[in-house]
TrEMBL record:
EC number: 4.1.1.36, 6.3.2.5
Organism whose genome encodes this protein: Variovorax ginsengisoli
GO MF term set: phosphopantothenate--cysteine ligase activity; phosphopantothenoylcysteine decarboxylase activity
Presence of keyword Transferase: no
Biological role stated in the UniProt entry: Catalyzes two sequential steps in the biosynthesis of coenzyme A. In the first step cysteine is conjugated to 4'-phosphopantothenate to form 4-phosphopantothenoylcysteine. In the second step the latter compound is decarboxylated to form 4'-phosphopantotheine. Catalyzes two steps in the biosynthesis of coenzyme A. In the first step cysteine is conjugated to 4'-phosphopantothenate to form 4-phosphopantothenoylcysteine, in the latter compound is decarboxylated to form 4'-phosphopantotheine.
The protein's name: Coenzyme A biosynthesis bifunctional protein CoaBC
Recorded name of the encoding gene: coaBC
Length: 224
């Protein structure tokens, strides 16, 4: 028997990478597999929540009973997420959103011009989906509990603490270990206002269930 820790909640999850198009054929993306986010969506559903998953381009089946919205770019992810966040009570941002996108998009394939000179690419910064949602009136009033993730290559604890403050969120989850992209296992570092807690190395679905319980315990006004 699994206690329905998130009964009555609407959990919104972003997952996977974004794809920032350069022309109709090429673009900028990253190695995020989406596995952590999809595991969280599944664990939240199992915990009795209504779940909406905003997914970048990933090769994963949709967990049963989860509503999935596919997006490509960071701007698409922002629009879908902001819209869905109006109804959500928990937001978990696991997506590896591209920090930058090409400043311009060519409608036609960019061709070699014969000069031997490669093209110069210019970038502009993408919107921060998590920060935008965390600043919304719904989140600021405590009706939407926001959780962020951090993948760092060094100084995870210091970066995680700083990121929690900067994003203005109650809970920040750090990926321990340099490269968890695509792996089925992970270990997590939970950072909140009270301190730090480690969820040791385990399959992502096990970690997702533990994280769901940690989130449920932090929801204001609910006695779990
Ligand atoms: O700032 P940084 O990218 O390291 O923060 C990571 C956290 O912020 C993750 O939860 C990620 O999903 C979220 N994020 C976002 N939009 C961005 C960048 C990061 O939602 N443009």
């Amino acid at each position: 028997f699994q206690p329905k820790l998130l009964a009555g909640e609407h959990v919104l999850v972003t997952a996977g990478p974004t794809f920032e198009a350069l022309d109709p054929i090429r673009g900028i993306t990253n190695h995020s597999s989406g596995k952590m986010g999809f595991s969280i969506a599944r664990a939240a559903r199992d915990a009795g929540a209504e779940v909406t998953l905003v997914a970048g381009p990933v090769h994963l089946p949709t967990p049963r009973g989860v509503r999935r919205i596919d997006v490509l770019s960071a701007n698409d992810m922002l629009a879908a997420t902001v819209h869905e966040a109006e109804r959500a009570t928990v937001f978990v941002a696991t997506a590896a959103v591209a920090d930058w996108r090409p400043a311009s998009h060519s409608d036609q394939k960019i061709k070699k011009d014969g000069s031997g000179q490669p093209p110069v690419l210019h970038f502009v910064e993408n919107p921060d989906v998590l920060h935008t949602v965390a600043q919304s009136a719904r989140a600021q009033s405590g009706r939407l509990f926001c959780v962020g993730f951090a993948a760092e290559s060094e100084n995870l604890l210091a970066h995680a603490k700083a990121k929690r403050e900067r994003k203005g969120i109650p809970l920040l989850v750090g990926n321990i270990g340099p490269l968890t992209f695509g792996q089925d296992h992970n270990s997590l570092l939970l950072v909140d206002a009270d301190g730090v807690r480690e969820l040791p190395h385990a399959p992502k679905l096990v970690l997702a269930r533990e994280l769901v319980a940690e989130i449920a315990a932090r929801l204001p006004g609910r006695n779990h």
